[in-house]
Amino acid sequence: MAKKRKKSHRSWIKETLDLKPDHHWEGPEGYKIFVAGRGAVRFNVPQKWICEPQENSFKFLDNKPPKDDCCLEVSYNHLPPRDDWSLFPLKHTLKKVMENDERQPIERSEVFTVKRQTAKIVWCEIKFIDTQEEPREAFSRTCVGLGSNIQCLITFDFWVDQAEQLIPIWDEVMRSLTLGLYIRDPRTGLAFPD
After folding, report:
1. pLDDT tens for residues 71-98?
2. Using one digit for the tens of pLDDT, what is the confidence trace for 33-56?
3. Which helix (DSSP H) or strand (DSSP E) does residue 93 occupy?
4. 142: how many CB neighbours lie within 10 A of its CB?
5. What distances in angstroms separate CA 188 from CA 26, 36, 37, 185, 191, one per listed residue?
Protein backbone atom coordinates (compact mmCIF):
# COMPACT_ATOMS: atom_id res chain seq x y z
CA MET A 1 0.00 0.00 0.00
CA ALA A 2 1.36 3.40 -0.99
CA LYS A 3 2.05 6.02 1.64
CA LYS A 4 -0.11 9.11 1.58
CA ARG A 5 1.75 12.30 0.81
CA LYS A 6 1.31 15.25 3.09
CA LYS A 7 -0.24 18.28 1.43
CA SER A 8 2.33 20.93 0.74
CA HIS A 9 1.53 24.32 2.19
CA ARG A 10 3.87 26.71 0.47
CA SER A 11 4.89 29.78 2.32
CA TRP A 12 6.35 32.52 0.19
CA ILE A 13 9.27 34.50 1.48
CA LYS A 14 9.62 38.12 0.47
CA GLU A 15 13.18 39.36 0.64
CA THR A 16 14.39 42.87 -0.12
CA LEU A 17 17.94 43.22 -1.46
CA ASP A 18 19.95 46.31 -2.33
CA LEU A 19 20.75 46.42 -6.03
CA LYS A 20 24.37 46.79 -7.11
CA PRO A 21 25.16 50.13 -8.81
CA ASP A 22 25.78 48.39 -12.15
CA HIS A 23 22.60 46.27 -12.07
CA HIS A 24 20.83 45.24 -15.29
CA TRP A 25 17.21 45.51 -14.13
CA GLU A 26 15.29 47.73 -16.53
CA GLY A 27 11.57 48.23 -16.83
CA PRO A 28 9.29 50.89 -18.28
CA GLU A 29 8.46 53.91 -16.16
CA GLY A 30 5.62 53.16 -13.75
CA TYR A 31 6.30 49.40 -13.73
CA LYS A 32 8.14 46.97 -11.49
CA ILE A 33 9.64 43.65 -12.55
CA PHE A 34 8.06 40.51 -11.10
CA VAL A 35 10.34 37.46 -10.99
CA ALA A 36 9.25 34.03 -9.70
CA GLY A 37 11.39 30.93 -9.29
CA ARG A 38 14.71 32.75 -9.85
CA GLY A 39 13.53 33.63 -13.38
CA ALA A 40 11.26 30.73 -14.27
CA VAL A 41 8.65 33.44 -14.97
CA ARG A 42 9.27 37.16 -15.31
CA PHE A 43 7.15 40.12 -16.48
CA ASN A 44 6.41 43.76 -15.70
CA VAL A 45 3.45 44.89 -13.56
CA PRO A 46 2.33 48.39 -12.54
CA GLN A 47 4.53 49.82 -9.77
CA LYS A 48 1.65 50.56 -7.40
CA TRP A 49 -0.15 47.24 -7.71
CA ILE A 50 -0.33 44.99 -4.67
CA CYS A 51 1.06 41.44 -4.81
CA GLU A 52 -0.84 38.84 -2.79
CA PRO A 53 0.92 35.45 -2.81
CA GLN A 54 -1.53 32.54 -2.89
CA GLU A 55 -0.74 28.89 -2.15
CA ASN A 56 0.06 28.08 -5.81
CA SER A 57 0.02 31.45 -7.54
CA PHE A 58 0.61 35.18 -7.24
CA LYS A 59 -2.20 37.73 -7.51
CA PHE A 60 -1.69 41.36 -8.47
CA LEU A 61 -4.46 43.82 -7.61
CA ASP A 62 -4.85 47.50 -8.44
CA ASN A 63 -6.13 48.19 -4.89
CA LYS A 64 -6.62 46.36 -1.63
CA PRO A 65 -9.86 44.34 -1.59
CA PRO A 66 -12.71 45.14 -1.63
CA LYS A 67 -11.70 48.29 -3.55
CA ASP A 68 -9.91 46.33 -6.30
CA ASP A 69 -11.24 46.59 -9.85
CA CYS A 70 -9.00 44.07 -11.58
CA CYS A 71 -6.91 40.99 -10.84
CA LEU A 72 -3.88 39.61 -12.66
CA GLU A 73 -2.88 36.13 -11.48
CA VAL A 74 0.06 33.93 -12.47
CA SER A 75 1.04 30.36 -11.70
CA TYR A 76 3.77 28.19 -13.18
CA ASN A 77 5.03 24.63 -13.31
CA HIS A 78 8.35 23.01 -14.09
CA LEU A 79 7.86 20.45 -16.86
CA PRO A 80 9.82 17.21 -17.28
CA PRO A 81 13.08 18.14 -19.06
CA ARG A 82 13.19 15.21 -21.49
CA ASP A 83 9.83 15.81 -23.18
CA ASP A 84 9.53 17.77 -26.44
CA TRP A 85 6.98 20.42 -25.52
CA SER A 86 7.36 22.24 -28.85
CA LEU A 87 4.83 19.78 -30.34
CA PHE A 88 2.14 20.41 -27.71
CA PRO A 89 -1.04 21.82 -29.38
CA LEU A 90 -1.13 24.93 -27.18
CA LYS A 91 -3.45 27.06 -29.32
CA HIS A 92 -5.99 24.26 -29.76
CA THR A 93 -5.89 23.42 -26.03
CA LEU A 94 -6.50 27.03 -24.95
CA LYS A 95 -9.38 27.34 -27.43
CA LYS A 96 -11.05 24.24 -25.96
CA VAL A 97 -10.56 25.46 -22.39
CA MET A 98 -12.10 28.84 -23.22
CA GLU A 99 -15.06 27.20 -24.96
CA ASN A 100 -15.87 25.39 -21.70
CA ASP A 101 -15.68 28.48 -19.46
CA GLU A 102 -18.44 28.31 -16.82
CA ARG A 103 -19.08 32.06 -16.77
CA GLN A 104 -21.26 31.78 -19.90
CA PRO A 105 -19.31 34.11 -22.21
CA ILE A 106 -21.30 36.47 -24.38
CA GLU A 107 -18.25 37.05 -26.62
CA ARG A 108 -15.04 35.13 -27.25
CA SER A 109 -11.97 36.36 -29.13
CA GLU A 110 -9.74 34.37 -31.40
CA VAL A 111 -6.61 32.83 -29.89
CA PHE A 112 -3.67 35.21 -30.28
CA THR A 113 -0.04 34.11 -30.54
CA VAL A 114 2.84 36.08 -29.04
CA LYS A 115 6.07 35.59 -30.99
CA ARG A 116 9.09 34.47 -28.97
CA GLN A 117 12.25 32.59 -29.95
CA THR A 118 12.33 30.38 -26.87
CA ALA A 119 8.66 30.08 -25.90
CA LYS A 120 5.17 29.44 -27.26
CA ILE A 121 2.69 31.95 -25.81
CA VAL A 122 -1.02 32.13 -26.64
CA TRP A 123 -3.91 34.05 -25.12
CA CYS A 124 -7.65 34.53 -25.53
CA GLU A 125 -10.34 36.84 -24.13
CA ILE A 126 -13.94 36.32 -23.11
CA LYS A 127 -16.60 38.85 -22.24
CA PHE A 128 -19.18 37.88 -19.65
CA ILE A 129 -21.69 39.36 -17.21
CA ASP A 130 -20.39 39.37 -13.63
CA THR A 131 -23.34 38.88 -11.30
CA GLN A 132 -21.61 38.86 -7.89
CA GLU A 133 -23.19 42.23 -7.04
CA GLU A 134 -25.02 44.25 -9.66
CA PRO A 135 -24.71 42.74 -13.15
CA ARG A 136 -21.71 44.27 -14.90
CA GLU A 137 -19.83 43.40 -18.08
CA ALA A 138 -16.33 42.07 -17.54
CA PHE A 139 -13.44 40.75 -19.59
CA SER A 140 -11.26 37.81 -18.70
CA ARG A 141 -8.01 37.14 -20.54
CA THR A 142 -6.16 33.84 -20.24
CA CYS A 143 -2.58 33.27 -21.36
CA VAL A 144 -0.67 29.99 -21.47
CA GLY A 145 3.04 29.91 -22.13
CA LEU A 146 5.48 27.04 -22.67
CA GLY A 147 9.22 27.50 -22.85
CA SER A 148 12.47 26.24 -21.34
CA ASN A 149 10.52 23.45 -19.59
CA ILE A 150 8.29 26.02 -17.83
CA GLN A 151 4.52 26.22 -18.27
CA CYS A 152 2.81 29.39 -17.04
CA LEU A 153 -0.82 30.41 -16.76
CA ILE A 154 -1.76 34.07 -16.51
CA THR A 155 -5.30 35.36 -16.10
CA PHE A 156 -6.49 38.96 -16.07
CA ASP A 157 -10.04 39.91 -15.07
CA PHE A 158 -11.26 43.50 -15.43
CA TRP A 159 -14.39 45.57 -16.09
CA VAL A 160 -15.34 46.38 -19.67
CA ASP A 161 -15.74 50.09 -18.84
CA GLN A 162 -12.09 50.19 -17.66
CA ALA A 163 -10.66 48.36 -20.67
CA GLU A 164 -9.08 51.45 -22.21
CA GLN A 165 -6.80 51.98 -19.20
CA LEU A 166 -6.17 48.29 -18.42
CA ILE A 167 -5.49 46.74 -21.84
CA PRO A 168 -2.08 48.52 -22.06
CA ILE A 169 -1.13 46.77 -18.80
CA TRP A 170 -1.94 43.38 -20.35
CA ASP A 171 0.04 44.37 -23.43
CA GLU A 172 3.08 45.15 -21.25
CA VAL A 173 2.75 41.84 -19.38
CA MET A 174 2.68 39.97 -22.71
CA ARG A 175 5.54 42.04 -24.15
CA SER A 176 7.78 41.45 -21.13
CA LEU A 177 6.82 37.82 -20.37
CA THR A 178 9.98 35.71 -20.21
CA LEU A 179 10.20 32.02 -19.30
CA GLY A 180 13.22 30.09 -18.03
CA LEU A 181 15.79 32.88 -18.04
CA TYR A 182 17.32 32.32 -14.62
CA ILE A 183 18.86 35.03 -12.44
CA ARG A 184 22.03 33.96 -10.66
CA ASP A 185 22.38 37.09 -8.55
CA PRO A 186 19.20 39.13 -8.04
CA ARG A 187 21.30 42.15 -7.01
CA THR A 188 22.69 42.42 -10.55
CA GLY A 189 19.82 41.09 -12.66
CA LEU A 190 22.15 39.16 -14.94
CA ALA A 191 20.16 36.35 -16.52
CA PHE A 192 21.36 33.09 -18.03
CA PRO A 193 19.29 30.59 -20.04
CA ASP A 194 18.84 27.17 -18.46
Report:
1. 999 999 999 887 778 788 999 999 988 9
2. 999 998 899 999 999 999 999 999
3. helix 90-99
4. 19
5. 11, 16, 16, 6, 9
